[in-house]
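Two proteins follow. First one:
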Amino acid sequence: MKILFDFLPLALFFVTFKLAEGRKAAAALFATEHFGFMVSGGQVGPEEAPVLLATLVVVAATLAQVLYLKLRGKKVDLMLWISLALVVVLGGLTVWFHNETFIKWKPTGLYWVMALTFWGSQAFFGKSLIKAALGKEMPLPEEVWRRLNWAWVGFFAFMGLVNILVAYNFSTSTWASFKAFGTVGMMIVFVLGQGFYLARHLPDEEPAAEEPKT
């Protein structure tokens, strides 16, 4: 259930964008009537309406996630706090300036901030954030945790770069599809690879002691 909760804003962004993209004129009219006060000039055009509406939805969904967790007395993960800050700032700029470039930078901003966080924790404090999250369940050598931490640094840096390459070299529609499916697929492949790596270094379970013969 947690993975569905984490990816809910992304799913809502994609669905909203695709629905509005198929009805651009109606989407522009709806956006102008209901959200024109949030847009510079007060008018939303057909070409910009899909990404504007999708941006508003993802901002609302991310805010709702944080509020839900806080009201339930649960911990809000660092990644969600960073995502909220970026989506509010960059999403707000996208809406006000009618410019989809800002929201397209949001995934890259999130990935690169996370890469810096993982790098800084290891480089300056000698602490592996992966170990902090999984160390109690998996007794592994320090070198293994260190390698995993650097692997996440590289992965987040790579993901941020790929997002920018897609955003600037393909249409917004293609970018939205990549954001919804491509990044999720890359994340799954990386996590599976990490799982195989962890399995190689987990200590063997001790055989159960034989019961004494009577």
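Second one, unrelated to the first:
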Amino acid sequence: MPHNRPSTLTWGHQDNNVKAAWEKMDINQITYFLHLADTLNFTEAARRSGVTQPSLTKSIRKLEEELGGPLIYRDGKDSRLTALGREIQVEFMRIDTGLMNVRELAENSVRGRRRVLSIGVAPTIAPNAFTGFFQHVLTQLPSIEINVHTLQADEGAAEVLSGKYDACILPSAPKENLKLNIQTLFRERYLLGFAKGHALTRFDEVPVEQMAREPYVDRLACEFRSQIIAHFMDRDVLMHPRFSSEREDWVQHVVASGSAVCIMPERSCTVAGIDARPVATLDMSRDIVLVSVSGNGTLSELRQTMSMAAAYQWSE
């Protein structure tokens, strides 16, 4: 256990008690308290910890004595963390993450395995802009593997905080959170996509009335779908989709066949045979971000990956 208190935590008048507590801290106390903070129920926390309730209660009380203040208000079914308890929870989560990293490193070393970075990617983000970056990361960090997962529609930064993914690539920055490290990668515009050789190719900027004459494909998974619809409705342009899908590959194949057009992010094309142009009056873009957990408990390889993302040249 570390003997120096984390600099990110404001201990106030309890500094001396906390410093002394670090000297006596038992790793089990960290686990017990995190389970209690998560459940706010001594019985359930004891079950998760694999100990009896009296043992867990005794451990928590000992921890409170060592830290010099109560960590949880015991008010029947309405138990809740104190201000000190909430601060301790954040720091213990960092420590617990660090301990898990140590165990994993030791296990990987013994078994000769590589560290795996699990990265979730929003389904509307194409791989085009990332293949070079990931190759760069793998070259610089030969001890890791990258495992990419497609996020569900309702998944995002919460899955990073829960530990389901080490990082996520998202089409917009999540709500600001001190526990998150948010790195903006690049911005991409929304353009009108159509088949190569289409008559719209002659325009540097497609007039709205020209676009409205074309059969339209509705990208149901588009994060800005409602804003795009509202934008054109405000200009008395009502698009009548003849085809719609949540699958980007289906949408793009329809567009590439020349059967219809669609509004799409400029770097999202993965199907050959698609061209794109800006639409007059439509000035809409999205910021692609890489999100991970912040703090010293973060995997060193992930911190290095985030640093490489910040320095990478994301221009096309």
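SUMMARY FIELD: The longest strand covers residues 180-195. The first helix runs from residue 15 to 24.
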